[in-house]
């Protein structure tokens, strides 16, 4: 408004300025030496025209401003009406929800009254109904809380009013925990491995049924380092690997139980005596960890993971050398729990050194994951690390093997296999960390498709060159015995499991496990130079990828 007033005052002052100009013009005319071609009348008409034009434009702007203010007022009123309508709908929804709650309470009350009337007819019925009313009739508030926390949150732990643990979907699991039967618990988990996801959620509830959950978990660790009996094909005992995974899972479930309790209740479970027992087990395991090799473990060592989880669960990390604990981190860098374990053990400040070790050992994928987990991407550029990983994968690192009649082709096949696996791992890493803008994946995916096609074509050509099996004779007599070597190819192919798939199942940052056995898609699996001796095998020697279970 002040601007409008100033403009109006300037327009009003034009008349006085015109008079001043007229006076000045008269003075100029008085001078005989100056000749003017313009007449005063023309100048006066010109300035009056400018004045009218400015006044007209000024009034137009005022009208537009008023129209804008009117529209703004109307829009504000419309928004207020809509907001009021939404609030009214929310209130109506709340009222309907309250009516349903009242109806549920009324139904529960009516059912309870009926049970009480029936219970008055006989003492035997009284006992049954009273137990059922204690276990199966929670309040409305408790029932709603159970519905909200049905996803496995310990805050919604189901307990009956008399303090007993609800047996849930696995009553045998609760029974084994009550009886402190660690061997039976291991067997139950092994037999029900297909339902491991739901069992994992039930174990913290079942541990509440034990008289001493901490001692029960420590008891379950006794066979962790039992004698490893190799199978006929020289591979590790699969049962021992499963047992170790179960031990780690039980310690994680105990940690989950302790987290859900207050500090007083947790201290009652993890007593000083329990800590001493856990420390004794850790000291017994320590010499066995000295034999572990960084390259052999490939970041997936169950022994190192179990040791670190033991220290974290029972709170005894301060009794061990921090440098020794840091040395174990690269051995578990591929485990989904690594970042959380490092934070719990107080090793966050050591992570730059750990990442350096991973980079120097050619495990840039793990280095990128930890760099994101601990916000060290400025110090360790993810794109540079991934490009370095691909560059190393394309190098010819091994000479032709003896007996190979085509050394150049064999080495090239090995390089192609390694590059294909590395490309899949890099694409997966880029997608999980959303690095597409910094590192486009289209060229990488095209390269993957090219290598896959070349691999499939080579496989078809190899199968086509194999000799056909002998047809049976018409007289029913079997084919003649021929040289067995005729049915074999003299050009050994690169084994399918030389570069096993990289178990890259972390939805970052280190998400929960994918408890399924769905086959990987074209770009969902990747390899990372895993030692075949530490993979997952069927008896026929072919590897299959499985999601991380424990």
From TrEMBL:
Domain of life: Eukaryota
Pfam family, one: Frigida
Disordered as annotated region, ranges: 455-480
Keyword list, A-Z: Coiled coil, Developmental protein, Differentiation, Flowering
BP terms from Gene Ontology: cell differentiation; flower development
Recorded coiled-coil stretches: 11-81
Family: Belongs to the Frigida family.
PANTHER family reported in the protein's UniProt record: FRIGIDA-LIKE PROTEIN 3, FRIGIDA-LIKE PROTEIN 3-RELATED
Name the record gives this protein: FRIGIDA-like protein
Organism: Ficus carica
